[in-house]
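Supplementary Methods. Inverse-folding protocol.

Structures were first reduced to a discrete structure-token string of length 232. This string, shown here, constituted the complete conditioning input.
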């Protein structure tokens, strides 16, 4: 498979807390596929950008992966060998996506984000959608999966008040502060933001159905998720 040598520009912090620009090289398979806010939900051939400890240590030696396994919530969901294999066999970039996407303009064919946008304040989510549009090539496609606000509200009507509050509106995970939700969307709300960012042909899809590659691997939580694709 053809490999593209891609230049990625991103912002890091020096020890003195001063921001500076650095450049790194990342090998990306063609087509170029970017997984945003990925956690450990990854697929072969994607470049995965995340602000977690997992992404921070992914490019370090394997013994660091084993140490990190004991320090992250990943040990609640993954066996140690599976965790280490995920870090060692996939491409990760550590970055705070609330500050934007650390890529040059028009370099990606696809962007994907699953259950991440709701962890951003609305203004930061709007900025991230604009960044997705910026980094995609003309004709490129974004796929977003988020908790469906319409489904969450239906849980209240069905008498599942506790589930609605604790799983969607007031998520409280003592082991992971970043698990808290900061905003919610139904289809019309996310469609409006995507169109405002410049996207066209915003379409709602079912679980693992659509035109973005590898969604049979990447999509999750079919029962309460909203799946949307949009074209630049």
């Amino acid at each position: 498979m053809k490999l593209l040598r891609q230049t990625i520009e991103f912002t890091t912090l020096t020890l003195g807390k001063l921001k500076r620009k650095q450049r790194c090289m990342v090998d990306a398979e063609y087509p170029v596929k970017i997984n945003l806010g990925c956690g450990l939900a990854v697929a072969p051939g994607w470049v995965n950008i995340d602000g977690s400890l997992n992404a921070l240590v992914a490019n370090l030696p394997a013994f660091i992966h084993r140490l990190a396994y004991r320090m992250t919530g990943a040990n609640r969901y993954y066996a140690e060998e599976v965790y280490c294999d995920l870090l060692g066999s996939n491409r990760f970039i550590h970055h705070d996506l609330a500050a934007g996407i650390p890529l040059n303009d028009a370099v990606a064919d696809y962007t994907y984000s699953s259950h991440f946008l709701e962890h951003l304040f609305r203004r930061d989510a709007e900025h991230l959608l604009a960044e997705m549009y910026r980094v995609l090539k003309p004709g490129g496609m974004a796929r977003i999966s988020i908790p469906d606000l319409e489904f969450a509200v239906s849980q209240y009507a069905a008498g599942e008040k506790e589930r609605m509050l604790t799983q969607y509106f007031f998520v409280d995970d003592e082991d992971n502060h970043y698990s808290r939700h900061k905003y919610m969307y139904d289809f019309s709300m996310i469609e409006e933001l995507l169109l405002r960012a410049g996207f066209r042909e915003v379409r709602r899809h079912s679980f693992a159905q659509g035109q973005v590659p590898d969604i049979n691997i990447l999509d999750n939580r079919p029962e309460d998720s909203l799946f949307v694709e949009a074209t630049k």
